[in-house]
Amino acid sequence: MQNPSIAGAQPSARAKWPRIVLPVIVATVALGGVASQVRADGAYNPHLFAIGTAGLLAVACAALGILAFRIRALHDRLQELEARNTALARDKDALTDAAERANRFLESHGDCIVRRDRGGAITYVNEAYCLLAGTTREKLIGSTRALDVLEQGDFAVLSDGTRIHDQKIATMSGPRWIAWRDVPLHSAHAPTEIQSAGRDVTDRVNAEQALAEARDRAQDASRAKSRFLATVSHEIRTPLNGILGMSDLLLETRLTPEQATYTRAVKTSGETLLALIGEILDFSKIEAGRIDLDARPFMLGPLIEETIELLAPRAQEKGLEIATYIDPDLPARVTGDAMRVRQVLLNLTGNAIKFTETGGVSIAVEPGIWPDEIAFTVRDTGAGIAPEEQKRIFGEFEQGEAAAKAGSGSGLGLAISRRLVESMNGRIGVESIPGNGATFEFTLPLPGESTPRAAAPDFSGRSILIVSPGAVEAPIMARHLVDWGAHVAVVPDIRAAAAILPERIWDTLIADHALGDAALAELLKPTGDIARRIVLLTPSARGDLQRLRDEGFAGYLIKPVRTVSLAARLAAEPAREGAPMLADIEETSIVPDIEGLDHGLSILVAEDNEINALLTRAHLSKLGHRPCLAGDGAAAWDSYLAAHESGAPYDLVLMDVRMPELDGLEAVRRIRAHEARIGAPRMPVIALTANAFPEDREACLSAGMDDVLVKPLSREKLADMIATLGRRAQAAA
Ligand code: ADP
Fold first, then answer.
1. Which of 100, 142, 481, 609 could form a disulfide with 486 if both were Cys (CB 3.0 to 4.6 A apart)?
2. Radius of gyration of the chain, Cα coordinates, nearest whole angstrom
3. Ligand 1 atom 2: the closest Cα is on which residue?
4. How far is the CA of 343 from the centre of ligand 1 (A)?
C-alpha cells in the first residue's frame, strides 16, 4: 500500500517549474523594455536597453540556478522517502505475518489460552479454551465469565513470577483436571494483562490416583499379612512353649541315655522352629516397612561382649573358639539402635558358628573409613562360600547349596541383616575363599559421644607368655595386651613354650586349658618362678578349678574373655602361695546363678493354658518359690483380693495377657485402681505374652505392668526377671 502524503508531493514539485520560469521571463522582458525607454532626454537608447536586458537575464539565470539546485535536493529527498516507504511497507507485512502465525499457533495449540485485563474481562481466548468453557469466542470476549471449578489445588509461584496451580473443571464431557500457568503480560502501549495457559492433565492425575490407590491397597494387604503372621506366630509359640519347657523338665529327670538323646532332639527341633518363627515375623515386619529405628546412646563394648557371650555356649559346645576385639580408639558410648546392631551381630555370628566345624569365630569392632563410622567384622574358619553363592545369599530365602540340602535355616537371616543395615544407612558384604573361612563385614554410622574413655591399663615393662593351641582367642588377647604396652608372645604348644621360656624373664603365663591336662602339668614345671600363672578355660571346665589350683595356677579367666576381666586379672597382685584362686573378678558366663537368687516368693500365676501353667509352676517351684495358679483374669483378680484381705498379699504376679473372661490388661488395671484406692504399695506385675511386637509391650506397660516376659518361658528368663525386680526394689528402697 502507498503512503498518500508522499505520493501527493510528486505532482506539486513538478508544477512549480512553469510557476517560477514564467515570472522570470516576464520580469526579464519587462525590465529590458523599461531599460530601453529610460533616457535622460526621454529618447530610446539601445545601449541601455541591452544593458538592462543583460542584467535581467543574469538575474533570471541566477534564479534558475537556485531553482534547479532546490529541485535536485527535493528529488533526492523524494527518493529517500520512497525507499523508507518501501522498507516500512515490508516491515509491516512481516509484522502482519508474524501476528497471523502467532494467532494460528495459539489457535492450534492443544493448551487452553485465555487473556484477561485487570478487571477480569476476557480479551483473548483460543479455540481450546472455548471448547473447555463450552461456548463461543464472541460470548467470551469482553465478559468476566469463569470456568466451573470443582476442586482447586494449591498455588505455587515460580522464580520468574509464573503462578501454577491445578483445577478440576466441570466440562460438557465430564470433569477434567487442568494444570494452569498464569503469566502477567506487560506492555508499554497497553494495560497489563494476565495470560493463563492450561494443560489437560486428567490422564496423568487419574494414573497417579490409581497408583496411590494400588499402593494403599498393597500396604493394607501387607499390614493384614503382618497381623496374620503375628497371630499365627502367637498360636505356634504357645504350644511350642509347652514342648520346650516340658523337654527341659524331662531332661532334669532320670532318663536313660537313649531317652535323653530323644528329648534333646525334641528340644533342639523346638528351638529351631522358634528361631524360624522369629525370623519370618521379623521379615514380615521389614517387608511391611515397619522398622522403627531408635537413636539412643548405648555402651558399645558391653553390647558387643554380651551379644557374643550369648552365643559362646553354642560355639563352645562345638569345640569352637569365640573372641571379640574392640578397638581402644572407638568411643565408649555411641548413638544408634542398639537392638538392631545386636540383631545383625547375632545373625552373622550365629551363621559363623553354624557353618564352622573347627577353629573359631572372631568379632572385631574398629573405626570405619568415614568419620563416625564403625566397622563390625565377623570372621570364621569354616568352609567358606563359593563366589557364585556370595552374590545371592543376601537375597530373600537364598541359601547355600549345603544349607539347602541339610534343610536347616530359612535363608532369611542375611536378607534381614542387609535390610536392617541399609535402613541404618550402612553397608554389608562378604569376602570368602572357599575352604578358608568367611568374613562378613557391616559398617554403620554410629556417632560417638565425646565423653572421656576410662583410662587404659598400663602394662609397659610386663612380659606375658600365652600358650594356646587356638588361633582365635589368644591372638586377640595378645592384641589387647600389646595395646596396653605389654610385651607378649603367643605360642601354640608346650614345645614352643619351652623354646621361648629362657629368652627373657616372664612375669605372666596364660595357659589354655585346651592344651590338655598332661601338657598343662608339663608346662607348669619349668615356669615355677613366674609370678602370675593364669589358666584360660570354658565355663564347662569350671569343675577342674580346684585341681588346677592345686597344680599351681593362681588365677583363671573364663572364655570368651572380656576386656575388663583381662585387664583386671593382669592388674591384680600376684597370689600368695596357698591363697584361694583369684575368682573375685566378674565372670563372663551369662547363665545366671539360679541358686544364688532370693528364694521363697509367693507368686500368683494367671495363665489359662494348662500346659503353660504347669510349666511355669514347675519352673517357679524349682527356683524355690511358691506359685499359686489362677485359670483366667477373673480368678486371678479374686485370688489377688483374697490374699490382700487375708493380710498375706502375693510378692509378685505373673499375668498372661490373653485370657478369656477378663484379660491380663484389664486385670492389672483393676489391681492398680485397687492399690490407688486403699493406698497399698505397688505389687510387681509381669506380663506373660507370646506377642513379640513392640506395640504389645507398650500396651502392657501402659496398662500398669512392670515388665514383659515373652514366651516361651525358660527358667533362666524367670530367674533373671525375678532378680531384676529384686534389684529394682532395692534401688527404690
Ligand atoms: P540360613 O542361615 O537360614 O540358611 P542366611 O540368610 O542366614 O540363611 O544365610 C544364607 C546362606 O549363606 C546360608 O544358607 C549359607 O549357605 C551361607 N552362609 C551364611 N553365613 C555363612 C558362613 N559364615 N559361612 C559359610 N556360609 C555362610
1. 481
2. 51
3. 409
4. 15
Tell me the residue type at 193. Answer: E
pLDDT of residue 211: 94
CA 372 to centroid of ligand 1, rounded, Å: 29
Q: What is the pLDDT of residue 213?
A: 93
Q: What is the pLDDT of residues 181-199, one digit of tens each?
A: 999 888 777 788 999 999 9
Residue 46 has pLDDT above 50, yes or no: yes
* Eight-class DSSP state of 448: B
C-beta 413 within 6 A of ligand 1: yes
Strand arrangement of the beta sheet that strand 626-630 belongs to: 626-630, 602-606, 652-656, 685-689, 707-710
pLDDT higher for 547 or 22? 547
pLDDT band at residue 110 using 50, 70 and 90 as cut-offs: confident
Shortest-distance Cα residue to atom 19 of ligand 1: 351
Give the fold, CATH level 3, of 602-732: Rossmann fold (3.40.50)
Q: 318 alpha carbon to ligand 1 midpoint, in Å?
A: 18
281-290, 365-374, 615-624: lowest mean pLDDT where? 281-290
Joined together, the cell numbers standing for residue 52 give 538592462
Q: Name the pairing type of β-strands 321-326 and 333-336.
A: unpaired
How many residues are listed for the chain in this entry?
A: 733
Match 492399690 to its residue by C-alpha cell.
675
The finding on whether 361 has its CB within 6 A of some atom of ligand 1 is no
Q: Ligand 1 mean position to 278 CA, how many Å?
A: 17
**Which residue CA neighbors atom 25 of ligand 1 most closely?**
384
Homologous superfamily in CATH for domain 296-445: Histidine kinase-like ATPase, C-terminal domain (3.30.565.10)
Architecture of the domain delimited by 110-200: 2-Layer Sandwich (3.30)
- Residue 346 CA to ligand 1 center (angstroms) comes to 13
Domain spans in the chain, listed from the N-terminal domain onward: 4-106, 110-200, 208-287, 296-445, 463-571, 602-732
CATH architecture of the domain with range 208-287? Orthogonal Bundle (1.10)
Tally helices (H) and strands (E) across the chain.
21, 24
Q: Which fold has domain 463-571?
A: Rossmann fold (3.40.50)
* CA 227 to ligand 1 center in whole angstroms: 28
Is the CB of residue 411 below 6 angstroms from any atom belonging to ligand 1? yes
Q: What is the mean pLDDT of residues 667-671?
A: 94
Query: Model-level pTM?
Result: 0.56
What is the mean predicted confidence (pLDDT) over 692-697? 76
Cis status of the peptide bond prior to 175, with omega within 30 of 0: no
- Residue 445 alpha carbon to ligand 1 centre in Å: 25
**Ligand 1 pocket check for 380: Cβ under 6 Å:** yes
Strand partners, 534: 510, 555
Q: Which atom of ligand 1 is nearest to the CA of 415?
A: 6
Which residue's CA lies nearest to atom 7 of ligand 1?
A: 413
